[in-house]
Amino acid sequence: MQSLEKVCPVCGSSRLVRDTVRGEIVCESCGTVLEDRGEYAGYQRGRSWGMVSTETFLDRGTSSLLGEADVDAFGRTLPFKAREMFARLREWDANVRLRGPSKAMYDGAIIISSVANNLSLGEGVVEEAGNLFRRCIEAKLSRGRKLRDLAAACVYIACREYGVHRTLDDVIEAAGARGKDVRKVYRIILWSTGKRVPAQSIEAAASRICSSLGLSERVRRKAVEIIGRAKEKRVVGGRSPVCFAAAAVYVASLVMGENVTEVAVADVVQISPMSVRNIRKKIVEILTLEEALTSPALLRYHPECPPVDDPNLFRERKFPRKLKRQVSLLLEAVKAQSAAGEKV
Predict the structure, then answer these.
(1) Which of 6, 41, 225, 245 has its CA 20 to 30 A from that of 194?
(2) pLDDT (tens digit per residue) in 138-177
(3) 101-193 fold
(4) Which stretch of 40-54, 97-111, 276-290, 329-343 has the lowest confidence by average pLDDT?
(5) CATH number of the domain at 202-343, out of 3.30.470.30, 1.10.472.10, 3.20.20.240, 1.25.40.10?
(6) What is the pLDDT of residues 216-234, one digit of tens each?
(7) Mean pLDDT score of the chain, rounded to an integer?
(8) Quick one: pLDDT band at residue 5, thresholds 50, 70, 90?
(9) What residue ranges of the chain are covered by domains with CATH 1.10.472.10?
(10) Which of 270, 227, 271 is closest to 252 using CA atoms?
(11) Residue 44 has pLDDT above 50, yes or no
């Protein structure tokens, strides 16, 4: 029993006692129960018994649990024979719950919770991963495979379904599994369950890359804008979402004046700088001439770039006077032509 510094709303008495066995807060003066099962953190609101329904266990958390306290409803200690009986019941209950599929679900739930904590995943992703893991156990996909590989693949699929950007390499590293085995189990789960996993969000990947490189919000918004324009022009199709996001961030950083090297962007997502360079050439084609003028690396591949006799001019960090003058004249001509068209 613990005394509390509260007031009873019925009689106004401050003689409140917390019963740690029953999980109740009771007023000693009038007997009003202020809180019921307040000590039980794993219990669901609106229910007076049982744990919260969850998909991370084979029985969805509907099984009965035997308490550890050897006392009756009035807080009195049980007789010796009764304590022996309940000790045997607890042992049998643990043996039944931690045997066969239940044991696999218990171990899988621990792995899924560990991976979710390492990757800062939400409760919805954990529940979806647990539900998929339970379906895999029921379909006997765990035979001959490690539970760690199966749990990691389930977490990755749940992240894809909830739109949480976590790469497969991130999940593999957090689970401490072997990449080749997890990829194989991932394909087996999709084939067996018939799931269609949505594609990764390019915008979410771009935001994560900007955060990793410490770029400003202006660069992130510009990258998202470039990705939207690329989707309208149908430039994204057939390319890796992560590679395209890395190239969009690199181009956006050049346009906004926060220069980042291709190698730095490629290292964040663990891809080749050549992949960023090849997609950058396609992205530059959808930029305006004003945006491409911010960097020689962008202007070189722009379709409206004026012809230059010496290609080495593009390798300089700052625009040479000759090239800058040609582009300025071209911009003035384009503006004059657009103004004349508006007047007509």
Answers:
(1) 245
(2) 888 888 888 899 999 999 999 888 888 888 888 999 988 8
(3) Cyclin A; domain 1 (1.10.472)
(4) 40-54
(5) 1.10.472.10
(6) 888 888 888 888 888 888 8
(7) 77
(8) low
(9) 101-193, 202-343
(10) 227
(11) no
Structure-block tokens of residue 153: 């693949």
Dig out the tokens for 151 from the structure.
């749990």
Structure token digits, residue 194:
């018939």
- 126 is written with which tokens? 């954990």
Q: Which of 45-49, 182-186, 226-230, 328-332 has the lowest mean pLDDT?
A: 45-49
Q: Is the Cβ–Cβ distance between 194 and 233 less than 8 Å?
A: no
Name the pLDDT band for 20 (thresholds 50, 70, 90).
Answer: low
Secondary structure of the chain in the HEC alphabet? Answer: CEEECCCCCCCCCCCEEEECCCCEEEECCCCCEEEECCCCCCECCCCCCCECCCCCCCCCCCCCCCCCCCECCCCCECCHHHHHHHHHHHHHHHHHHCCCHHHHHHHHHHHHHHHHHHHCCCHHHHHHHHHHHHHHHHCCCCCCCCHHHHHHHHHHHHHHHCCCCCCHHHHHHHHCCCHHHHHHHHHHHHHHHCCCCCCCCHHHHHHHHHHHHCCCHHHHHHHHHHHHHHHHCCCCCCCCHHHHHHHHHHHHHHHCCCCCCHHHHHHHHCCCHHHHHHHHHHHHCCCCHHHHCCCHHHHCCCCCCCCCCCHHHHHCCCCCHHHHHHHHHHHHHHHHHHHHHHHC
Looking at the chain, the whole-number percentage of residues with pLDDT higher than 90 is 6
Q: Residue 227 in contact with residue 245, Cβ under 8 Å?
A: yes
Closest CA to 59 of 31, 17, 114, 100: 100
Tell whether the model's pLDDT for residue 320 goes beyond 70.
no
Query: pLDDT band at 38, cuts 50/70/90?
Result: very low
- Full strand arrangement of the beta sheet holding 33-36: 2-4, 16-19, 24-27, 33-36
Topology of 1-52 in CATH?
Answer: N-terminal domain of TfIIb (2.20.25)
